Amino acid sequence: MNETLTKLILKLNEQIVNPLMELLFALAVVVFVWGVYEFIRGADNEQAREKGRLHMIWGIVGIAIMVSVYGIIAVIVNTLGIPPPDIPFFLPI
């Protein structure tokens, strides 16, 4: 693969993709924790528990999507032969 293209992909990954993924992952965790808080706070109210349950579900969905994105990036990186990105829990396939 062209060295310039590899450098560009790595730079885009480092400057745009990783921070965006970390932000979205953190947002998903916050939504999940907020759902737990709502669920516990509204223990005596069925509507409040349902709202908290939905937030927990969507938080888990968001976390699962972000983990899947890391997996997709790993597949792309390995397929193109690009050196693995510097992601804290990145495991090359």
Estimate the strand proportion.
under 5%
* Number of DSSP-assigned strands: 0
Cα-atom radius of gyration: 18 Å
List the uncertain runs.
none
What about the largest sheet?
A: none
| End-to-end distance | 19 Å
Give the integer mean of the pLDDT values.
83
Helix content: over 70%
How many structural domains? 1
Pairing-aware structural class of the strands and helices? Answer: mainly alpha
Q: Provide the succession of SSEs.
A: HH
- Describe the global form: elongated
What is the count of DSSP helices, taking H or I runs of 4+ residues? Answer: 2
Descriptive report:
The chain is mainly α and 93 residues long. It has one domain (9-80). Helix content is 80%, strand content 0%. The chain has 2 helices and no strands. It is elongated and about 60 Å long. The model has no long low-confidence stretch (mean pLDDT 83).
Question: Summary?
Answer:
80% of the residues lie in helices and 0% in strands.
Features:
mainly alpha
Provide the fold topology.
Layout: H1 3-41, H2 46-80
